[in-house]
Amino acid sequence: MIATDAPALAVVGGRGRRRVLHAAANAWSALQGLLPLIALLLLWQALGDPHSPYFPSPSTWATALRDRTSAGDLVPAVLATFQSVAVALVLATVLGVGIGGLIGASPALARCLGPTLEFLRTLPPPTIVPVAALIIGVDEKMKLFVIVFAALWPVLLNTTSGVRSLHPTLLEAARSLHLGVVARVTKIFLPALLPSILTGVRVAAPLAIIVSLLAEMLTLMPGLGALLLMAQRNFNAAEVFGLLSVVGAFGFIINAALAAFESWALMPQGRS
Amino acid sequence: MTTQSAFQCERLCIDLPGAPGVRRIIEDLDLEVGRGEFVSILGGSGTGKTTLLRTLAGLTPYSSGRAVYEGHEVRSPAPGMAMVFQDYGHALLMWRTVRRNVALGVEGRLRAAELDNKVQNAIRMVGLERFKDEYPWRLSGGMQQRVQIARALAMEPSALLMDEPFGALDAMTKASLQDQLLAVQAETGATVLFVTHDIEEAIYLSDTIILLKGSPAHIARRIRVDLPRPRDQIVTKELPEYLQLRHQLYEAFRHEIHA
């Protein structure tokens, strides 16, 4: 092992070696964070009863998940939920940045829309589901609507406060450089607001996942939420636990991807 | 130097909103700045130097009278003028490299080769060739201010409006940027309006110094600086004329302080 590794490291040189070591250190610190969880699962596996109706041991979860996969349910469900969450996040970001930007830039608009938005914002998203189902019907559009409704606010509010905290000198510099409206928006506003917007998106992502699962549970539309509810109704505890770990991993991966994107996008600003 | 004027103000009045109500900052100000002239606006803090400059830059509206740039009334930033702010930290785009910051005012209007040429030239004039691909937040304050000056220069302005551009810099950096600015002005022939509260800086750089006084402010004195060019940090500052101007201005400020 060592004998084969050594020449490879020699080829990539000092800088590459440092990068490899750095990546290894990162992986190790990430693994450290997972150690308690792994220990708990191992303990559960060792001491738990695989036939328990309530707390079946982890190996049975894997079996249940494998069954779901071979039945052709799991992968489409994960994809359906992921698609809803991703599309809704994009829509919420576009809408939130647009509306939030306008409200931040215009005090008059903020006064007009403020109370209405404040009211809508405080509505718990789950209560929207029945209303949306009545008006729009139970379909993908309704699901998107409900998720966007929940995920919109963090982006919108962050963008508004971002616009308000833009430094006047930055805007005056843009004016004195004779930039037009489009250039001002694309070259000044959006890049300057990027940190605020991305913070909003990161707050919105878990909300989008929660509401997506919830809408699936309430309407049994295809997705992880529906699968979870069906498993519960069938008293299949192993499958419930299995799906729960899939949901956890799902959220974890989306969050990690967004965090990675954020630090990549903000690198030139020196803020990551 | 031509006799035609770049800037002209007639009975210019500027009011700004304040907490207790509207306050008159500048009253009945007459001013004429010739093309290619280097004019410093000097005054104590709060006299309205920056307000006057911002009005001439088209950033702050005026209430009455006239402010004219190249024959046109100033209502918004006019083509041909470029502004340099004191607060370089907020005037630069921290997410763009030096080169792309400098290109900001001219990109989209020029072909790639021409743009590149102008940007390179502006960066050369402020001596930042080595740092053109660096981000501004990685540079020192003096270098960041030079990026802002290069950004203005890339637009090839006929008038450069500078609001205490060296106010936040240390003495060494300040002296070197002053010399660079004089070299740039000699090369481009641009009219420069330069706001400062530093008496020696005003004398060293200017053809004319305008002393603002009072509240609302008016022009208390207009002082011609006939020191030979090119100027030199050591030689110029030892000339009897320089010392006499320095004396005169400090006297004027002494009265300002006791008024």
Walkthrough of the structure:
The complex is a heterodimer of chains A (272) and B (259). Chain A has 272 residues and is an all-alpha fold. Chain A has 2 domains: 2-47; 59-269, MetI-like fold (Orthogonal Bundle), CATH 1.10.3720. Helix content of chain A is 85%, strand content 0%. The longest helix of chain A has 46 residues, at 2-47. Chain B is of the alpha/beta class and 259 residues long. In chain B, the strands form 2 sheets. In chain B, strands 6-7-8-3-9-10 form a 6-stranded mixed β-sheet, sandwiched between helices. In chain B, strands 2-1-4-5 form a 4-stranded antiparallel β-sheet, with helices on one face. In chain B, a hairpin with a 4-residue loop joins strand 9 (208-213) and strand 10 (218-224). In chain B, helix 4 (112-125) packs across helix 5 and helix 7 runs antiparallel to helix 8 (240-258). Chain B is globular. The model of chain B has no long low-confidence stretch (mean pLDDT 92). The interface between A and B is medium-sized, with 19 and 27 residues.
> Quick one: overall form of chain B?
globular
Rg of chain B from C-alpha positions? 18 Å
Write the H/E string of chain B, N to C.
Answer: EEEHEEEHHHHEHEHEEH
What's the count of strands of chain A?
0
The greatest interface between two protein chains, and residues involved on each side, is: A-B, 19 and 27 residues
Question: CA-to-CA gap between the ends of chain B?
Answer: 37 Å
CATH fold annotation of the largest domain in chain B: Rossmann fold
**What's the pLDDT, averaged over the residues of chain A?**
88
Number of helices of chain B: 8
What is the CATH superfamily classification of the largest domain in chain A? Answer: MetI-like
Topology-level CATH name of the largest domain in chain A:
MetI-like fold
